[in-house]
Amino acid sequence: MLATTEAPNGNMRHGLTRTQEKEETKINIINQMMRTMVSLSAACLADGTYSCYIAG
């Protein structure tokens, strides 16, 4: 996982170019989606069903 430093108000650290900010936002969204997928997979395994894999 990539670590990002955030200001207390939740804004990304200053000093980044717009492009870097956009890239970081994209990476954060991807990381969040990955974590969600892992959570869903773990829930499906715990559930003993494979419906999420079929749906995916």
Automatic annotation (TrEMBL):
This is Uncharacterized protein. Residues 1-24 are annotated as: Disordered.
